[in-house]
Structure formats: structure tokens, C-alpha cells
Amino acid sequence: MSVAAPAIEFREVVAGYGEFMILNDLSLSVRRGAITLLIGPNGAGKSTVLKTLFGLLKPRQGRVLLEGEEVTGASPRTLLARGIAFVPQGRNLFPQLTVAQNLELGGITLGKRITRERIDEVLELFPRVRERLQSQASALSGGEQKQLEIARALLLRPRVLLIDEPSIGLSPIVVQDVFRLLRNLVSQGTTVLMVEQNVKSALKVADEAIALESGRMVLARPAGELLADPHIERLFLGGAAPVPVTDHVA
Fold first, then answer.
1. Helix (H, G, I), strand (E, B), or coil: what is residue 202?
2. I need a surface site. Which of 19, 26, 125, 174 has the fewest CB within 10 A?
3. Are 183 and 191 in contact (CB under 8 A)?
4. Is 3.40.50.1000 the CATH number for 1-83+158-250?
5. Residue-wise burial string across 49-85, b where 16 or more C-beta atoms lie within 10 A, e elsewhere
6. Is residue 204 helix, strand or coil?
7. pLDDT tens per residue across span 31-48
8. H helix count then E strand count, the chain
9. Given a cut of 50, is residue 246 above it in pLDDT?
10. Residue 205 pLDDT
11. Does residue 64 register a pLDDT over 90?
């Protein structure tokens, strides 16, 4: 494996549902140890990128690489073992189980001793979740549920964290808490690939941004540069005309 290999690469990936293709010869590269934000109008393929990377959707063509090694078509279980964790859009908890039981299920592949140790570790990052350990997951606020989902994903100490629309249903204060947590994870070496509807806020916390349109990459730039672009609205509110791809190498 090359030391310089990106965390994630898509090489001419075609993927979709039935006869309807969402990703059309998509090629992109995600830098290690950074937050990369996927942006684009509805239907551009942002969430499909995450699902394809995590093995929930099999590519029809092309290659997917993780740190230089091919993982095209690998199952979610295999990808979890390879260090990829996925926090999907919406709520994905067992509502009638307690917070502690939801965490324990997140570490089911680790064994009881390691799971207990890891739970103690991740709860240091989520003091509010620690306070609610014996509560049913359904009794948690939206922000607490999202924190629980992220905590559960972190039990596996992922090298790459995929997170889809973390701000949905959360207050602005909780959203900023989630973004600060992601920055903290990156400072510890985790790579984060994120889809987020609140693009301007997300660009403030991201390092890189990749814009998609019709399942193709149309732009790749440092997040700060894109935030300052007066045409940014076109890139995520729809109607963006294809623009030349600008690759940024950190």
C-alpha cells in the first residue's frame, strides 16, 4: 500500500438502482485525516456515494479503493472490519432498548471485555449519553440520539467515518457540538466523509469540498475557498452548470 494513497478513491464508478444509474463514471479522491464534504443539488449522488462505499450498493462498473487497496463490492461487515463506519441519515437505533444496550450491540463483533472498555472510552466524548445510559433510546432527544449513533460507530475505532446529514432534526447548538466532535476525531487521525444539507455551516468545519452533479464530480476545492465563492448557492440549490474540476493537493 502506498503511503501517499488517499483514504478513499472512486475510479469511474457506475452505480444505481435497477436500471436507473445515479453515479455515472464517478472518479473522486478523499484525503486522509481530513473532513471532506460532498455537496450538490438533490439527486446529484451524494448519499449514493456513501452507500456504495459502505457496500450497501454494488457498483456496476469501476473501482473503489480504501487506502490504496481495492474494496469494490465488499460487504458492510467486511468494510467495518477494514475500518469504515457509517452513520446514515435519520434515526438508526433500537428504540425500545436502553442506551447501554444500543452501545453493546455496536460492539457485538468485539467481544464483551473489549466492548466494555471501548464504551468507557467513547462515553468520555459524550457526557450526556453517559448520563442517559439506562434510559430507553426512544426517550432521548434528537440531539442525544444522534450522539448515541456516532458513539456507537466509534466503538470500532474507524479509520474512516461516513456520516450522512448529521444536522437533520437537531438544534443549531447541537449541530455545532457534532461538528466540533468531528474536528476532534480528525485531529486524532480519523478521515471523515460527510453529506450535510447545511452546506455553509459544514464548509466552515470541513477541510475539502467535492461538488457532484448528475453523478459526476464537477469541482474539488479547499472548503474555505468554496465558502468564499459567490456562486456557491448554485452548487447545492440546483441548477449548477458543469464547471472545470479543480483538484487540490494538500
1. helix
2. 19
3. no
4. no
5. bbbbbbbebebeebebbbbeeebbebeeeebbeebbb
6. helix
7. 999 999 999 998 999 999
8. 10, 10
9. no
10. 95
11. yes
For 168-204, the pLDDT digits (tens) are 877 888 888 889 889 989 998 999 999 998 898 999 9
Q: Report which of 107, 114, 54 is spatially closest to residue 85, judged by C-alpha positions.
A: 54
C-alpha cell at 58: 454494488
Per-residue burial over 183-195, b if 16 or more Cβ lie within 10 Å, else e, is: eebbeeebbbbbb
Residue 66's H or E segment, with its range, is: strand 61-66
Q: Give CA–CA dist 159/224, Å, rounded.
A: 24
Q: Which residue has the higher pLDDT, 208 or 181?
A: 208
CA-nearest of 70, 46, 43, 75 to 58 is 75
Q: State how far the Cα of 54 lies from the Cα of 116, in Å rounded to an integer.
A: 26
- β-pairing, 191-195 vs 160-164, is parallel
Order the strands of the 20-30 sheet from edge to edge: 20-30, 8-17, 61-66, 69-70
45: cell is 449522488
State how far the Cα of 80 lies from the Cα of 86, in Å rounded to an integer.
9
Task: Give the amino acid at 66.
Answer: L
- DSSP single-letter state for residue 126: -
Q: Residue range 86-113: average pLDDT?
A: 89
Question: What is the spatial distance between Cα 205 and Cα 223, in angstroms, rounded to a whole number?
Answer: 8
- Per-domain residue ranges for the chain? 1-83+158-250, 93-157
In the chain, alpha helices (H): 46-53, 76-81, 99-106, 112-123, 127-131, 142-154, 172-187, 199-205, 223-227, 232-236
